[in-house]
Amino acid sequence: MVLAQAARRGGAMKAMATEAEVRVLDAAEELFYARGLQAVGMDAIRGASGVSLKRLYQLFPSKDVLVEAYLRRRDERWRAALASHAEALPAGRERVLAVFDWLERWFAEDGFRGCAFVNSFGELGGVSPAVAEAARAHKDAFRRYLCRLVTDAGAPAPVGAQIALLAEGAIVTAAVSGDPGAARTAREAASVLLAPYFACEPR
Question: From CA 30, how far away is CA 90, in angstroms rounded?
Answer without folding.
Answer: 33
